[in-house]
Amino acid sequence: MKLLVAEDEYTTRLTVQVILEQWGYRVDSVEDGAAAWKVLQKPDGPQIAILDWEMPGIDGVELCHKVKVLDRDTPVYVIMLTGRDAQNDILQGFDAGADDYITKPFDENELRARVRVAERLVTIQEELAISNNELRAVLNHVEMLQSSLPVCTSCLKVQHYDDSWRTLKDYVEQKEDPRFLYTICPHCRK
Known about the structure:
The protein is an alpha/beta fold. The protein folds into 2 domains: 2-136, Response regulator (Rossmann fold, 3-Layer(aba) Sandwich), CATH 3.40.50.2300; 148-189, no CATH class. Helices cover 47% and strands 15% of the residues. The chain has 7 helices and 7 strands. Strands 2-1-3-4-5 form a 5-stranded parallel beta sheet, sandwiched between helices. The protein has a two-stranded antiparallel ribbon with strand order 6-7. Helix 2 runs parallel beside helix 3. One of its GO terms (cellular component) is cytosol. Residues 2-119 form the Response regulatory domain. One of its GO terms (molecular function) is phosphorelay response regulator activity. Keywords: DNA-binding, Phosphoprotein, Transcription, Transcription regulation, Two-component regulatory system.
């Protein structure tokens, strides 16, 4: 699983990165919000982001807002890791779309537990996205099977799904329409 650590303080960023890599995660590590945003927009971007609140450029709260509207099959799981520990700050972080919130200084075991929860949720979301895509494909297939197949009564051409008209022979040879089941009849087998 791929994670992003966005933290402007070098020691904290390196510490978190090393800990995560020791646990077997692939980690992208950046020092500001703008660099984090670039990484998160990639099609193969990280599934989990650990964001500091106060960073140059785009701060963690603004970045969290931006991440939550990304067009992805599965949303990025965001953990805010910050020194801001006032209840109002925590609520503001969650209101921005953070999925979890850890205050500094952090406990390594707590970080591990929360990252594992994030990993489980991301995995479930990915499985659901795959199932939804498969279901959509099946529903499209059923819809196509239930639709009628227009045939011209004069020339016997068949209307293709792209609205072109083809001879039945051309249409069947394309083997694109799932309504046709291709087999060999008993007469032709002989």
